[in-house]
Amino acid sequence: METLFWISTFTILYSFAGYGILITLLNKWKKKKNTNTPFSEEDWPEVTLLIAAYNEAEIIRQKIANCEKIDYPKDRLKVLFVTDGSTDQTNDIIKQYDSVSFSFSPERKGKIAAVNRIMRYITSPITVFSDANVMMNPGGIKALVQPFESNLMGAVSGEKIVLSETEDNASASGEGFYWKYESFLKKQDAEWNTLVGSAGELFAIRTRLFVPTEENTLIEDFVMTMRIAADGYKVGYEPSAMATETASANIAEETKRKVRISAGGIQAVIKLVKLLNVFKYGKLTFQYVSHRALRWTLMPLALIGAFASTLWLADTHWFYNLAFRAQSIFYLLAFFGYVIRDQKTSYKLLHIPYYFTYMHICVVKGWIKYFRGNQKVTWDKSERVVLATNRAA
Fold first, then answer.
1. Percent of the chain at pLDDT above 90?
2. What is the pLDDT, as a whole number, of residue 389?
3. Quick one: signal sequence residues (predicted)?
4. Which among 30, 23, 78, 82 is positioned nearest to 56, based on CA atoms?
5. Rounded-to-integer distance, Cα 275 and Cα 282, Å
6. Is the pLDDT of residue 180 over 70?
7. In terms of pLDDT, which residue wins out, 340 or 191?
8. What CATH number has the domain spanning 47-247?
9. Do strands 135-136 and 101-103 pair parallel, antiparallel, or not at all (unpaired)?
10. 3-class DSSP state of 378
């Protein structure tokens, strides 16, 4: 039981704190290289902004208006919506705008199938992927494209921004805190070697590096960019390229998203099993295992192992007794967070123990759903928070 405790505790602490400290120290010891020369106005390459949309009539006008504000040479930017399977007014609305184009197939096979279908027709050297429900800052495309001045750059990820209010529920509070920490880790990863995956809401690749991804892939953005990294290219991170969206409206809506991502995570570990070969992939394997694979595989087991072992050992030594009490208090706070999960509060830290526990419950649910074959590749949209500013408008 002592062995179980120490292995479990190390896994938990390393995954959520130790790796962040270690990668930060590695960055401080790394010699910084000179940055690349910025593109001049006449040298910006042609770009296709590809947006996969399914039944997005409610937000498509806002998305198009957002695209029209992009600060990029208009003669070198093509905005293309792929709307496979849409049955609402999405296509009719897009037809009203000369600034964008769309491609449509009546069969709905999922996002990656739609992307695979259209990518063969894209000729621009850079393709930027964005979701229909996120809004970009005007300088986002330039920020994503600039790093491609280096021939070693294969993909670049932007930053996901979760909008929040003074008072939020557990879904919004937890997701906001999670993404702030993720942003820190992504910055450290990219500076030291390469980003591990990408933000599917906004990322770019060299078009020639695109290889069709299996149509059953659940988190295609992660798998796509990890394969580019495995081929020896760098995946960059540009926090100044921002994709903003609101959090899920409540925990029930967030659960749909989290379980899908968790199912996709265990699927990705299986699809990318070759990346566990540290002798071949070196730094990339270290980052991939530390930042992603541990969370998608061992973390829920480690949490159970740590609690069960201290419950068993609590009477044998004061240290184990203290560890048991600390975990018990944490899970009591998590239960309190569960009770108020959909209530808004300005004391957002109250939601953190619950959201942490909840995330790992979703991981287990994702495992079950994936291995039972119940996770569909097609996406059921989660209802999002409507901010007070939007309600007022």
1. 73
2. 44
3. none
4. 82
5. 9
6. yes
7. 191
8. 3.90.550.10
9. unpaired
10. coil
